[in-house]
Amino acid sequence: MNQPTALTRAISPLLGECELTHLEREVIDIRKADQQHHEYEQALEKMGYIIRRVPEAPHLPDGVFVEDTAVVFPEVGIITRPGAESRRPETKTMAEILKEYRELRFIEAPGTIDGGDVLTLGKSVYIGISQRTNREAINQFSEILKPFGYKVTGIPVTKCLHLKTAIAQIEDDLLLINPEWVDREIFPDYRCEHVHPNEPNGANIMRKDNWALCPSSFKYSLEWLSKRGYDVISVDQSEMAKAEAGLTCGSVIVT
User: Which of 76, 78, 165, 192 is deepest in the core (most CB within 10 A)?
Assistant: First the structure.
């Protein structure tokens, strides 16, 4: 069995010019952000992923947030069409790398979708209807995945950038969710643990086997994961958070 791979990209020196939707712009320390991204990659390696960097894109401020460029399924890879026009050139180099792993399909205009809006729970795929993702792209996603037995459902997302900002699968039947941003009634077959009200972004974590990766600023999520018996790794994401980024934004996972 091939070792799972995490595709990542180096930080652009223009990260401070990134697209923002919900946050006021703050100065981003590029050197510190680069160090944080390196520590994030080290954490993924500890979790068992091989790190493979796609070609650098120093002219693209948001290029490090590769999750939004592609969504990978066992049967196919889907190259997105990001909602922010400035981000659409990011997909080219991702497609060039990802075609080594999967047959590819592409979202076409007028569809727009960011990978951060796509949550896969088994054969059910939930896609956030957000400022970056529209129903046309969701329809295209559904048509691409239908031959493989997936059911695609579009769901409203409010007050946050992407669906996966607000929800994560922790176990086969357990979700960590911010119910203020996503309606938990959409997931009746799952137990739902609410994020702490002091940590509205606290669901944006990553889990593999018994590893759980969580930003060090999410104290309540870290404690909850530890109590559940996970081997928890915490990383500083303070500079990346200024760019409205979460942990999942920095990698495309290929298993």
Answer: 165
Ordered structural domains, the chain, with CATH? 5-254 (3.75.10.10)
Neighbours of 218 (CB within 10 A): 23
Give 158's pLDDT tier (boundaries 50, 70, 90): confident
What is the model's pTM?
A: 0.96
Token pair belonging to 203? 């669901």
- Of 225, 184, 178, nearest to 202 (Cα)? 178
The whole-angstrom distance between residue 16's C-alpha and the CA centroid of its chain comes to 20
Task: Decide if pLDDT at 122 tops 80.
Answer: yes
Q: Is the pLDDT of residue 192 over 60?
A: yes
The stretch 193-221 carries a mean pLDDT of 97
pLDDT, tens digit, for every residue of 49-68? Answer: 999 999 999 999 999 999 99
End-to-end Cα distance, the chain: 9
d(CA 89, CA 149): 31
Give catalytic residues, as residue numbers: 162, 249
CB 15 within 8 A of CB 28: yes
Alpha-helix residue ranges (DSSP H) falling in 8-47: 30-46
What gap in Å lies between CA 221 and CA 4, rounded to an integer? Answer: 25
Buried b (16+ CB within 10 A) or exposed e, 117-137: bbbbeeeebbbbbbbbbbebb
Which residues does 16 contact at the CB level (< 8 Å), separation at least 6? Answer: 25, 27, 28, 30, 61
